[in-house]
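$ ./design --mode recover --in tokens.txt
reading tokens...
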């Protein structure tokens, strides 16, 4: 297949990322993904794997870990989700996204195997299998793989991770009924295999016990074995001391915005050192962390006015975004929010976390997906928090409205869904600086 044909084929597949869901997806199983990769010769067995799950911080942890491994001289594949603009963003080698021609060929190969098996693979199963095959084809040394949702029955769980990394457990992809934290943790713990070294960023003792109970080879825990300490704001990012199971790294510059990213960085460094079973040098860590990039996570898209793109879509992520804006930038001007969300999210919780009630204007749009909540509904939720609101369905039009209102010393934050971030990126790239 060429790239266009691959996109057309993917459009015909069930895609749980965009299809409206009235509750839990029934019949969760790894059988389909396992049958597909087995028919392909289990390409995921051709290289070592670091598997990352959690509620928040997965993408950042994957990218920082991959950057550390690359700085050590390894050829590193990374598989992330969701994408912002194009699905090629999900599959990268040494930080370079797969080119469209190779993506098309990989999707075509997977489609042929699925046809031979007379199976109907989902969108995510197909792209996951294509990524795992591509990493084998280009002979990566290691793949850092991000779970799409939860873990145990996620298509990525066909891998056997040398290192299984858990960022945290928070409210997302859950109905919130009963002991939901423990239930979510149990599903995320499914990526842990008996051969895995576990690097656990979750700090709640009861929840952490779920990960401890899963058979594993070794386990490192936040605060007990690794942590970011003596954190302070610096020009272009943050400075921190990093304590790991193997050593201490002092005065490390991290070129990411947000104090919360230091938790992700400490987790990533612990993950990389667990992979090598040895400490990394200060030079490797310094070079990697001074040059890491995480698109869509408090990404500065424009200045004068400051335009921030952040994919916060649950209350914890929203609170982190609001704290980052206040602490890292302390804007003197007005604050505008452009917000669009998808069904199944805690709309009021996210808007509260974003401090919508303190914004000078909340411009609500409809996330450009079948799961997009109508702009009027998001606006009603924002208004209930005391925010001055407008409802504009189209993301680009909503962004244009915010930029029309904003002066040079104001800030516009675009958030609520990665689909909104992607549409905003396209619009901003089309209009230029």
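writing sequence...
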């Amino acid at each position: 297949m060429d790239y266009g044909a691959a996109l057309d084929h993917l459009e015909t597949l069930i895609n749980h990322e965009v299809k409206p869901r009235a509750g839990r997806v029934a019949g969760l199983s790894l059988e389909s993904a396992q049958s597909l990769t087995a028919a392909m010769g289990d390409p995921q067995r051709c290289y070592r794997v670091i598997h990352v799950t959690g509620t928040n911080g997965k993408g950042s942890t994957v990218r920082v870990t991959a950057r550390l491994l690359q700085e050590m001289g390894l050829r590193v594949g990374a598989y992330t989700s969701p994408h912002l603009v194009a699905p090629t963003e999900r599959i990268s080698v040494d930080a370079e996204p797969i080119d469209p021609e190779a993506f098309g060929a990989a999707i075509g190969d997977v489609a042929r195997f699925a046809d031979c098996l007379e199976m109907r693979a989902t969108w995510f199963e197909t792209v996951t299998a294509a990524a795992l095959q591509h990493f084998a084809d280009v002979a990566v040394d290691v793949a850092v793989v991000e779970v799409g949702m939860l873990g145990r029955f996620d298509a990525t769980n066909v891998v056997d991770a040398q290192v299984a990394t858990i960022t945290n457990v928070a409210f997302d992809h859950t109905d919130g009924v009963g002991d939901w934290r423990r239930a979510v943790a149990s599903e995320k713990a499914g990526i842990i295999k008996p051969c895995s070294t576990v690097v656990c960023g979750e700090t709640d003792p009861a929840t952490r016990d779920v990960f401890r109970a899963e058979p594993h080879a070794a386990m490192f825990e936040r605060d007990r074995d690794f942590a970011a300490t003596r954190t302070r704001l610096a020009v272009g990012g943050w400075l921190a001391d990093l304590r790991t199971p193997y050593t201490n790294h002092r005065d490390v510059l991290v070129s990411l915005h947000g104090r919360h990213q230091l938790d992700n960085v400490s987790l990533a460094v612990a993950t990389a050192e667990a992979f090598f079973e040895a400490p990394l040098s200060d030079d490797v860590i310094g070079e990697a962390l001074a040059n890491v990039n995480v698109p869509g996570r408090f990404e500065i898209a424009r200045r004068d006015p400051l335009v921030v793109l952040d994919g916060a879509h649950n209350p914890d992520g929203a609170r982190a975004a609001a704290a980052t804006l206040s602490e890292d930038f302390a804007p003197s001007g007005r604050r505008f929010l452009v917000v669009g969300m998808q069904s199944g999210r805690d709309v009021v919780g996210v808007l509260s976390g974003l401090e919508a009630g303190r914004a000078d204007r909340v411009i609500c749009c409809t996330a450009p997906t079948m799961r997009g909540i109508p702009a009027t509904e998001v606006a009603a939720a924002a208004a209930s928090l005391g925010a001055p609101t407008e409802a504009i369905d189209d993301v680009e039009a909503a962004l244009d409205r915010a930029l029309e209102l904003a002066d040079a010393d104001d800030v516009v934050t675009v958030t609520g869904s990665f689909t909104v971030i992607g549409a905003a990126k396209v619009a901003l790239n089309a209009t230029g600086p």
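exit 0
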